[in-house]
Design brief:
The structure is a homodimer of 347-residue chains. With 347 residues, chain A is mostly helical. Chain A is 36% helix and 2% strand.
Amino acid sequence: MAKRFAAAFLSLCIMSIAPVSASEDLLAAAQKIFEPIPLAPPELPGNPATPEKAELGKMLFFEPRLSASHAISCNSCHNLGLGGTDGAPTSVGHRWQRGGRNAPTVLNAGFNLAQFWDGRAKDLKEQAGGPIVNPIEMASTKTDVVALLRTIPGYNVAFAKAFPGEPSPITLDNAQKAIALFEATLITPDAPFDRYLRGDENALTDKQKAGLALFMGEKGCADCHNGQNIGGGMYARFGATIKPGVEFLPPDDKGRVAVTKDADDTYVYKVPTLRNITLTAPYFHTGKVWSLREAVALMGAIQKGDQLSTDETLKITAFLESLTGAQPQVTYPVLPPDGATSPRPEL
Amino acid sequence: MAKRFAAAFLSLCIMSIAPVSASEDLLAAAQKIFEPIPLAPPELPGNPATPEKAELGKMLFFEPRLSASHAISCNSCHNLGLGGTDGAPTSVGHRWQRGGRNAPTVLNAGFNLAQFWDGRAKDLKEQAGGPIVNPIEMASTKTDVVALLRTIPGYNVAFAKAFPGEPSPITLDNAQKAIALFEATLITPDAPFDRYLRGDENALTDKQKAGLALFMGEKGCADCHNGQNIGGGMYARFGATIKPGVEFLPPDDKGRVAVTKDADDTYVYKVPTLRNITLTAPYFHTGKVWSLREAVALMGAIQKGDQLSTDETLKITAFLESLTGAQPQVTYPVLPPDGATSPRPEL
């Protein structure tokens, strides 16, 4: 209900934060609205971190055998070399089928209030089970994934280490736990804006500060894009003020209404994080906009009914460029070979 | 000519190395035929190693934008987590087309006398250019790859660092050089058999030693599978003694004759390395055999006309299991984002 209220709050544009000018005021205002990415991964409730579980999660994240074809892994669409996404409007899945929505970044995803564009998974663990069994994505089944993992001697060892004391540790639930734990480590601290939030006023250029002032102030971007992930904390209607055309809002995807069955959630989506936004083009749930400037201008128009000037767009874009943090350093995992009875890829 | 002679030599089975029994004799005989993988990567002639060039090569190896779809990288089929191959009979390429032959491992590939199953590329550098422009693999073009790389600011920096002093460093030739240099680092030293070759008689089990004796001795496997890569050093007819059925030797793939135009090279292929063979199923150029034991038995039958006993097959298989070395430790690269004019994926 709080989320619904927030979306309505946005779409009605009841209030925008007052413009700020003085440098100290700007920092103080920003510190009230945003929060830096922590330097260490957060803990997951009910899923305590161990090196063995995180290592298993990394293996599974890069494991193409979780897909029916044995050719598609989590990393195929959430490529850790490409800002945790795949640089495509929608992703390539099983037998070259195309996904319905742009692959959201896995980076900092643990800081979102829920997962998927429509928030249909409550957390990273629940999300991890989705694409594996989606027939147009990895196209496996729960039964097949577990059966396959159980035939691989190396995974029997790795799951036993990650879930000690469990009589039958290879379950999809445990696989999802391990993947979630690894994904929770995929944070990007120390962006220039994080250093700014921690008090380093020189971390942003003057242009970026001007963009931040617009973003928080009169342009109202921070009404939705706020908090630790500068987004990811609420839902909002895409086209809150002006409904865009079908190129940006295809009629066969009505957003969160499919989850809540509440007509008010038609065309409502999770507000995406803007962290690492320079790395994650193309933009929006359709992935139809490749230019960050165009994306900023479109948001101003359809969310706020505001025709941003070129100068305003460039300043806000410059601010968004300060949101790119240190990318995760990941050692590529060595995956265990098939066992004698392992099933073959379905190609 | 020497290679042709070697193939003929094999197929006629003129000579096999005499059986060896005593432990010291076995080691001494093995040291004459095989050579350990070095602990450091070899130098590439005309392509001196620098950290900048190797890093660029790693980026390009994992770079899906080298493919038309921006979804397929070198690592898609030569997965460093899966023994440098993809665990499929033949690989998935552009728009789910299937490759013609089983993807050979990239691990230790620099020690082969040539690249591809038919040896049509003389070295790693020449090989690296092949799949990128193959319409059923990555399906890009030379022009498109270079044009794309030149639009990406991060690659302009990386190529300039890797090829200092060159006025226009982004060329396909330089990309291939960098990939080759990275691939040359993908060696797997310190397999049990390497420790054995260096004099540690305890590195192999008695069963593995018995397998080695058969492999070198009466079964004649080492007639072809010898040297540093235990294969990879010559060409041989698949079915040198008994021509196998179409399931293993499809009539539309006649092997090296397509390269040399010499009828004697019909059904002749490069002898593959047996290093890391436990990681690289399925086997042979068609990828139709999933079990290493079955592969060993088939080789005995069709290459040597020898019906190996179960005991012999198991011993030779045990020896082959000693060929798995330390897998490369690779930090997953962070790839630079598109530039403003970068071309879009063709999906």
